[in-house]
Design a protein that fits this description.
alpha+beta; six-stranded antiparallel beta sheet; two-stranded antiparallel ribbon; rod-shaped
Length: 168
């Protein structure tokens, strides 16, 4: 009898423990579901940047309210950094898309180069603020070139472009 009573008591204890283990497993599954929901919310509230680049401007500070679908920062992708310079009309024939130009700037590493991607088809008068050694040329053509290593270039930084030899 005592043995049967002990076996019955052990059976009840084992059943109680099984139900405790089952309850703990159910709580773990519920917690994992909550964790997934939280991760989804975090991903929705802090989406990744669409491209590698640098933050150019911050429109809102921590604690300010932002409307849905409103930009919080301005991003300048690394592949959109370009060197823009102006070429006198007498030299524009040497600057064609695909050619490489060499340039320098204050505080930059030496040996910088960029590939010309765009040459304006229309001349324009020299912009009122142009950083050149001699702005005697009145009609100039805008040229845009994409640097091979844009990471260390700051937007708006004046550059000196080495003139290209005329093509024959």
């Amino acid at each position: 009898r005592q043995a049967n009573a002990r076996v019955a008591a052990a059976q009840k204890t084992a059943d109680a423990r099984r139900s405790q283990v089952d309850a703990a497993r159910a709580q773990a599954v519920e917690a994992q579901g909550g964790q997934r929901e939280t991760q989804i919310r975090i991903n929705q509230l802090s989406p990744p940047a669409p491209a590698a680049g640098r933050i150019e401007d911050v429109y809102f500070q921590q604690g300010e309210w932002v409307n849905a679908n409103q930009a919080v920062v301005a991003l300048l992708p690394d592949n959109k950094v370009k060197v823009r310079f102006y070429v006198p009309e007498q030299q524009v024939a040497a600057y064609t898309p695909g050619r490489t130009v060499h340039f320098s700037c204050d505080g930059c590493a030496s040996g910088l180069s960029a590939v010309i991607r765009y040459v304006s088809p229309r001349p324009e008068f020299t912009p009122p603020i142009i950083y050149s050694r001699d702005s005697r040329d009145r009609l100039v053509f805008m040229v845009e070139a994409y640097p091979s290593n844009p990471a260390n270039l700051q937007p708006g930084l004046p550059v000196d472009v080495e003139p290209l030899p005329e093509r024959k």
